[in-house]
């Protein structure tokens, strides 16, 4: 499973709703690869001109060089801090959930592993063909008024699947239902290269996806009073929290007590 960027981690802490994904992973008793894709956010901050200068068919290496250089600019310090925090929180979530998982930081992979660059080349070539063969699918994925830089999200996501399959024999991707269109593209490529692969989706909760920012949710910065208040005042959200925390609840532990314990565990050391 891949996790995206949350720009409020430094200010507001991590969302406890991240435990929703880990509750599903915990129940499957499988080996997991946790892909930290928060660094992809730099795509939103990269000037389209920098990508256009690479030509009509830029290589993965040249694209990654541009993204890495953008990540390291002093003006991106806030993004770096949020990515650092997401890395720490994901590692802590793995520990708290007691699942068997290997963590991958996309920033490190971008910089150090040529297998990823090669996987991205495969993905770029596939997306180029897909734009001709199934333009409606590609168009439905890209945001309106997408820039050349924004269009990198799709090949980056496909490349991570190819990469993890090559280095760890990962044969499936898990995530929220909102990623279905991305997963359709991944499945099409996997079908082409005749590799067994599947996509599994979990239902979405009443808020934005947990790896993104949202308001009036449980966080590591939430006080005991806030936890109690939101669980009493928002039945829909309470039901959602109750559903994922039930996997972590101890015997005779109330929902409030479990939420408080998981909050304390997740923010431990921060």
Task: Outline the fold blueprint.
Layout: E1 2-3, H1 9-12, H2 19-28, E2 31-36, H3 42-45, H4 48-52, H5 60-71, H6 77-97, E3 100-105, H7 106-112, H8 114-133, H9 135-141, H10 153-168, E4 172-176, H11 180-192, E5 198-202, H12 224-233, H13 235-245, H14 255-267
Parallel strand pairs: 1-2, 2-3, 4-5
Account of the protein in words:
The chain is mainly α. The protein has one domain: Rossmann fold (3-Layer(aba) Sandwich). The chain has 14 helices and five strands. Helix 11 links the parallel strand 4 and strand 5. The chain starts with a strand and ends with a helix.
Query: Residue ranges: pLDDT <50 for 5 or more in a row?
Result: none
The major beta sheet can be summarized as: 3 strands, parallel
Number of discrete domains? 1
CATH topology: Rossmann fold
Helical/strand content category: mainly alpha
Please outline what is shown here.
This protein is 57% helix and 9% strand. It has helices at 9-12, 19-28, 42-45, 48-52, 60-71, 77-97, 106-112, 114-133, 135-141, 153-168, 180-192, 224-233, 235-245, 255-267, and strands at residues 2-3, 31-36, 100-105, 172-176, 198-202. Helix 11 (180-192) links the parallel strand 4 (172-176) and strand 5.
